[in-house]
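Same chain as my last thread, 162 residues:
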Amino acid sequence: MKTTYRISEKEYMQAINLASKSSPRQIGLIFMMVLAATAVLSFLGTGTGLDITFNCLLILTIFGVVIFIYIPHVARKGYRQNKDIQGTLTIELLDNGVEFSSPNTVARVPWDHIVKWRQKGDWIFIYRTSRAFHMLPKSVATNGFDLPLLIGRLTQHVGDPV
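reply #2:
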């Protein structure tokens, strides 16, 4: 059964934010990068406690600008440029995979082309590569889509969510 749905800019931003949440491993890596950059900058400077504190704050500010300003700006720009995602989208559960479509695009994704999937909040993310994914709001269940069947088939053919 084909089910239609729409994704607003606000929902898109929420989904991108959920999909890009850092794992503990990534947070640890960022922390180590901040420490390394602080050490390098402190070595190049005077090495005083004030110098180290300033360098650390500078690096954390740069990370903050990237995470809280740049990434949301790029995501919002991507939504506004992608006319397909702004329109009516359709999902159909097939025996051999899932079909996503918009007025201009059809993506038939066989089970063996899905590398992973995850559920976060009100969203299901179906990954075709480690970075490229289809996002599906769980609210499609209110339009008649069999969400438990999709989750069951994803678990059966792809594995447990990551």
